[in-house]
């Protein structure tokens, strides 16, 4: 999980440097080892599990903002048959789809380069 935490930090550093006036937040609990008590509190403070890692609070066109579920380099989202590679990734896709229906742009990003491309495309349009 350390790799995903490093990815989140790298993406946040990029946002802060490249787009200093853009407001964003990253999921602090994602990939961190929490105590049972902390995990219970985090669960109580969310509407559901599988909330995306990154939210950019910058409307563009008809979109109210951008949510990105960050995955470390090399993660496969789907199997060869087209099914999601895990129940957790399927659950994350379900949450992204619900957010998309509410007017947000949503994506999975595997690795820093893909995250950067999504962010640049969103913020420069």
Strand content: 5-15%
Any idea what the CATH architecture is? 3-Layer(aba) Sandwich
The whole-angstrom Rg is 15 Å
Distance between the termini: 32 Å
CATH fold annotation: Trna Endonuclease, Chain: A, domain 1
Name the helicity range.
Answer: 40-55%
Biggest beta sheet attributes: 4 strands, mixed
CATH top level class name: Alpha Beta
| Global mean pLDDT | 92
Number of domain modules: 1
Question: Which stretches of 5+ consecutive residues score pLDDT under 50?
Answer: none
Which structural class is indicated by helix and strand composition? alpha+beta
Task: Give the strand order of the largest sheet, numbering strands 1, 2, ... along the chain.
Answer: 1-2-3-4
Tally of individual helices: 4
DSSP E strands, number: 4
Report the order of strands and helices: HEHEEHEH
What spatial form do the alpha-carbon principal axes imply? globular
Structure description:
α1 runs parallel beside α4 (112-123). This protein has a single domain (2-123), classed as Trna Endonuclease, Chain: A, domain 1, CATH 3.40.1350.10. It has a 4-stranded mixed beta sheet with strand order 1-2-3-4, sandwiched between helices. By secondary structure, the protein is of the alpha+beta class. It is globular. The protein contains 4 helices and 4 strands. The protein has helices spanning 2-18, 36-44, 87-101, 112-123; strands at residues 24-26, 54-56, 66-71, 105-110. The longest helix is centred in the N-terminal third of the chain and has 17 residues, at 2-18. The mean pLDDT is 92.
């Amino acid at each position: 999980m350390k790799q995903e935490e490093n990815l989140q930090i790298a993406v946040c550093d990029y946002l802060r440097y490249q787009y200093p006036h853009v407001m964003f937040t990253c999921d602090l609990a994602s990939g961190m080892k929490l105590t049972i008590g902390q995990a219970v509190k985090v669960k109580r403070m969310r509407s559901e599990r599988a909330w995306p890692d990154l939210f950019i609070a910058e409307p563009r066109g008809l979109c109210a903002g951008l949510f990105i579920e960050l995955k470390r380099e090399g993660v496969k989202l789907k199997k060869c048959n087209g099914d999601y590679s895990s129940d957790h990734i399927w659950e994350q896709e379900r949450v992204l789809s619900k957010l998309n229906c509410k007017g947000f742009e949503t994506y999975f990003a595997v690795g820093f380069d893909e995250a950067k491309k999504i962010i640049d495309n969103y913020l420069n349009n």
